[in-house]
Amino acid sequence: MIKVVSYNMHKGVGLDRRRDPRRILDVLEEIQGDVIALQEADLRFGAKTRIIPHHMLDDHSPWHAVPIAHDGGNMGWHGNALLVRKNCSVEASAALHLPALEPRGAIRADVVVDSAPIRVVGMHLDLSGLWRRRQARAILAHVESCAAPLPTVLMGDLNEWTRQAGCLRDFGRDFASVATGPSFHARRPIGRLDRIFTRGFRVIDCGVHATAVARRASDHLPIWAVLEPLG
Questions:
Q1: Cα(189)–Cα(185) distance, integer angstroms
Q2: Residues 8-19: pLDDT tens digits?
Q3: C-beta separation of 24 from 60 below 8 A
Q4: Cα 218 from Cα 31, distance rounded (Å)
Q5: pTM of this structure
Q6: Around 9, how many Cα atoms within 13 Å sit in the side-chain half-sphere?
Q7: Which of 10, 13, 35, 74 could form a disulfide with 218 if both were Cys (CB 3.0 to 4.6 A apart)?
């Protein structure tokens, strides 16, 4: 069984307007995911430095960030980061350059979790529906271009308010949508902006993590799914 998590951490700024990376880790430790896709994990302007410091992740968590080839002190790529348990091996990783009006990207990692090789894509898509669909097509094209097929998870903040149209339809052609539930706004969740899509997995359980600390830590609630690779 593999537990995956997607979390827009809002640059570590909670509903009390305080930036608190320790609180983000507290939320993640409550969930205990094996692979975690973070959005807004870096500052947006200036040096775009990482919100969760190296020492805090290395010394006070069971995860490490998937390395992405780029310059700077970021955790990932355009605010997207992937965390995996320290006993998992990362076989490959890539930054995906997405078509966009504003800086947007996605990241992909091939990871071995408990002897099971899987492929994971973390993403944060555009506010514009037109650009979201272009970004979805670019992500799908990248996944199909990978040399070896693997059970695959796509997850992140899609910024899609519709139920089945737009980029949801694009992803849904080849991937199954996991019924995690609404995760935005954390104070009163009504929007399913955060999504998980799978191919090559059986969904064992899924949901939205809505504890007291999660409701304060970000404007999004984390979503999660427990998956079993098929075959």
A1: 5
A2: 999 999 999 999
A3: no
A4: 15
A5: 0.96
A6: 31
A7: 10
Domain that holds residue 41: 2-229
Other C-beta atoms lying within 10 Å of the C-beta of residue 145: 7
Per the omega criterion (within 30 degrees of 0), is the bond before 185 cis? yes
d(Cα 193, Cα 215) in Å, to the nearest integer? Answer: 16
- Residue 138: how many CB atoms within 10 A of its CB? 18
CATH number at residue 139: 3.60.10.10
CA dihedral 200, 119, 166, 45 (to 10 degrees): 160
22 Cβ contact partners less than 8 Å away, ≥ 6 residues apart:
56, 60
Q: State which amino acid sits at residue 82.
A: L
SS3 for 71? coil
Tokens linked to 173: 């052609």
**Residues 175-212: tens digit of each pLDDT:** 999 999 999 999 999 999 999 999 999 999 999 999 99
Written as six digits, the tokens of 210 are 């809505």
Q: What is the DSSP letter of 220?
A: B
The tokens describing 119, both together, are 């492929």
Domain count, the chain: 1
| 220 token code pair | 């999004």
Long-range contacts from 85-93, C-beta under 8 angstroms, 24+ separation = 85/34, 85/35, 85/113, 86/62, 88/34, 88/35, 88/112, 88/113, 90/66, 91/117, 93/66, 93/67, 93/68, 93/69
